[in-house]
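Page 42, continued from yesterday. The earlier attempt failed because a stray header line got pasted into the input along with the sequence. Redoing it now with the clean sequence only.
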Amino acid sequence: IEEVIGDDNNDNQDDLSSWTDAEETSDLIKSYFESLQSSGLVTGVAKKSPLSSTPNNHDKCPHFAYTAMHGVGLPYAIQSFQTFFSNDLQSHFHTVPHQSKPDPTFPTVPFPNPEEKGALDIAMLFAEQEKCDIVIANDPDADRLAIAEKSRVTGEWTVFTGDQIGTMLGHWLWERIGKTCGQPVAMCASTVSSKMLSAIAQTEGFHFEDTLTGFKWIGSRASALQKEHGYRVLLTYEEAIGFCCGDVIFDKDGISALGVMSELAYHVYANEGSSLAQHMQGLYDKYGEFVSNNGYYICNDTSIP
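This time it went through. Structure tokens are written below.
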């Protein structure tokens, strides 16, 4: 790294120091959440809550257990939830205490990736103790989002795949925003992701594109579709739990996705009397079943190029 940086090391450090200034960082955060508030992603479903006037109906609303997975996401996750939800529903957001503070040793998880088997175990245990329905997890730098749900009927857990989360987000944003936004709508997903969102696009009449893998490609194509072709891009995603909702930034963003997914879940529970698993099954029933089974191999032999 030092060889790559070379003689410019000191200059780079000087440039970076300005970004660690508390005031500038505060302004950046403020600007981000103002953009999120004005983006149209906040549909108001959880702001104009009928539960306020009917306290007993609070049982319908899901409780959320959030884990930052020893990363930096907590303060921004809280602010995202506040952006999407009314004040009387803030008590439905619970924080997994053992994983709330940044810790580069990641002491409670085998590997700090929400996709990894066992990574959500502590969060799910906390959710059961606090009677939460849904686990929301960011990875340590909070650019990705994982979702798990405990059934109120069977007590069994469903850990949703990135494709399932992307499909639910895409359908929600189309139904709530796309149908009435007054301009052509587009969505994108990496070519290794599920084709279910493409099937929804064909049925509903919005534009969908496959892209190369990685948000370098996904985000640049979304930007081009919006700026050069006049589309309103409502969702781009990759199956590895990376989601970009709207055009606040053309990159994967676990904080805005957290707010949108939580609002979707609120609507499904409070207004439909359903669950996310049942909601996902309803999408399968309407648009067709799509199945993916991803995996990887670990090679510890360093002699293999």
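Notes: The two ends are 21 Å apart (CA to CA).
Reminder to self: strip header lines before submitting.
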